[in-house]
Design a protein that fits this description.
Blueprint: H1 8-21, E1 29-34, E2 39-40, E3 46-47, H2 54-65, E4 69-74, E5 87-90, H3 94-105, E6 110-113, E7 120-122, E8 141-143, H4 147-154, E9 160-167, H5 171-181, E10 186-191, E11 203-204, E12 207-210, E13 215-217, E14 221-222, H6 223-241
Parallel strand pairs: 1-4, 1-6, 4-5, 6-9, 9-10
Antiparallel strand pairs: 2-3, 7-8, 10-12, 11-14, 12-13
């Protein structure tokens, strides 16, 4: 009857909807990439890197907690998202990540390119396992497509594009050059020279450089806290565009 209590599931959905209305990134669709790419040499071996995907997954979760509709394109990684609302798309090679990014990019408000994409891939992949022989093994490599540059060239008015730069020397100069050449709104710099930063750690130390080359340096923090700093900056830019 009229005084009957609604079903618990309906009550939960109503509360969630009311809470979500007040979040800073509600109804904003955001694309995130995370993890490494593996470039096959043969059916057994590959070229890869040490990226764990922790930073990218932390960003995806933080964006989701701020109300965004998140699409996460993930390279090979054991990481999982805390927010079940994150749409995860698994890929392996750089070419697959490029295709997935192009599929979703045109429909998103912002894109956070956190993945450690391989710069080179074998020119040819052996269909069978390469047998060990005396002497060395030469593998011809070719460049992979520059995903970040491709997206920068396709960026629409009002879109926000963020890149990452992991450097070992001339850190700020190299990051600023990448920022300009890839048409980014800001770039997140971290250095392997900083203790506690880089691959496979639970902490990170970053500097954000915006398109006006203004720099904001942060101390060593957990990757969840770093993700919050990055996502707050994204929210600021999106609201400026709106």
């Amino acid at each position: 009857g009229e005084g009957r209590m609604a079903e618990p599931e309906e009550i939960v959905c109503f509360i969630e909807a009311e809470i979500k209305k007040k979040l800073p990134l509600v109804n904003q669709k955001i694309l995130v990439t995370a993890g490494p790419t593996y470039e096959a040499i043969d059916p057994v071996r590959f070229i890869g890197n040490h990226s764990s995907g922790k930073m990218g997954f932390a960003i995806a979760d933080q964006l989701a907690s701020m109300g965004a509709d998140v699409i996460l394109i993930a390279g090979p990684t054991a990481q999982t998202t805390k927010h079940k609302s994150v749409k995860r798309v698994d890929v392996t090679a750089a070419s697959e990540m490029l295709n997935a990014c192009l599929l979703y990019y045109k429909d998103v408000k912002a894109c956070v390119m956190c993945a450690a994409v391989a710069d080179y891939t074998p020119a040819s992949v052996s269909p069978q396992k390469i047998k060990k022989k005396d002497g060395g093994l030469n593998i011809e490599l070719k460049k992979t497509a520059d995903i970040l540059k491709t997206l920068g060239e396709k960026k629409q008015k009002g879109q926000v594009l963020i890149g990452f730069a992991l450097e070992t020397e001339n850190e700020e100069y190299n990051a600023a050059e990448k920022l300009k050449s890839k048409n980014l709104d800001f770039i997140v710099l971290n250095s392997l020279n900083d203790k506690g930063a880089g691959f496979k750690t639970d902490t990170n130390k970053i500097t954000i450089i915006d398109h006006k080359l203004h720099k904001t340096a942060f101390g060593l923090k957990s990757k969840d806290e770093v993700a919050a700093d990055i996502c707050n900056k994204i929210a600021e830019l999106i609201h400026e565009e709106i």
